[in-house]
TrEMBL record:
InterPro entries: cNMP-bd_dom, cNMP-bd_dom_sf, HTH_CRP, RmlC-like_jellyroll, WH_DNA-bd_sf. The keyword Transcription applies. Coiled coil: none annotated. It comes from Anaerocolumna sedimenticola. The lineage of its organism: Bacteria, Bacillati, Bacillota, Clostridia, Lachnospirales. SUPFAM superfamilies: cAMP-binding domain-like (SSF51206), Winged helix' DNA-binding domain (SSF46785). Residues 13-114 form the Cyclic nucleotide-binding domain. This is Cyclic nucleotide-binding domain-containing protein.
Length: 219
């Protein structure tokens, strides 16, 4: 767990809290670490979410499916990233998304009610946790707004370009690697994979981008 504590020190939820404080937090909040195999469900759509999860190792995906079985990739999360906090805080009875391990993964689960309710010991870290949680929820709201803006683009080319531009800005370079494979990218952009692949090829022919596998350059 020592290495995992160092990972948690970098997680936004624990910003400003020392390692010794994080260790106290895990005990006070009744944390639970679980291991998952590749493609194993962590959260199933329709279930009630009472905890937020932090990826300690591996990677997970948040997926939404409609009544017809059409699948949309909401986001992919790597080591140190958080999921489930919005639905846990909202207290909704049925979660609208599923969370799946995309490789062997370890996840730390923290009960949300233990975070938002000060314990009988009046631990000093609770105010820091609540402040960090509010900032986390605000950033998640901004992310979802950006995602809505992206998928509302009218053409496939506009969606691809908006996604690649955002990745370039995130990497501070016009040449970068994307984490998503083509199927995942199509799910994320809510477009047909074959149509997306054809458009990416056209964009390269039009000297808008260059790409090789998952490496892209915006020209």
């Amino acid at each position: 767990m020592n290495q995992e504590i160092l990972i948690l020190k970098q997680v936004s939820l624990f910003q400003g809290i020392e390692i010794s404080g994080i260790e106290d937090i895990l005990g006070c909040l009744g944390s639970n670490v679980k291991s998952y195999k590749k493609n194993q469900s962590i959260i199933s759509a329709g279930s009630k979410i009472i905890s937020l999860g932090i990826v300690l190792s591996g990677g997970v995906q948040v997926i939404r499916e409609d009544i017809l079985g059409n699948r949309m990739l909401v986001t992919s999360l790597a080591e140190g990233e958080i999921f489930g906090e919005t639905f846990a805080c909202a207290g909704i009875e049925e979660c609208p998304v599923s969370v799946i391990a995309m490789e062997p993964s370890r996840v730390l689960m923290l009960p949300i009610n233990r975070i938002v309710t000060p314990c009988s010991k009046a631990c000093s870290f609770h105010s820091s946790l609540l402040t960090n949680l509010l900032q986390l929820l605000a950033r998640k709201n901004l992310y979802l707004n950006n995602k809505m803006e992206l998928i509302s683009k009218r053409t496939i080319r506009e969606k691809i370009m908006a996604y690649l531009t955002a990745e370039a800005e995130k990497n501070h370079s016009n040449s970068f690697e994307i984490l998503l494979n083509r199927n995942e990218m199509a799910d994320y952009l809510c477009i047909d994979r074959s149509a997306m692949s054809r458009e990416i090829s056209r964009m390269q022919n039009d000297d808008i981008i260059k790409y090789h596998k998952n490496h892209f350059t915006i020209l």
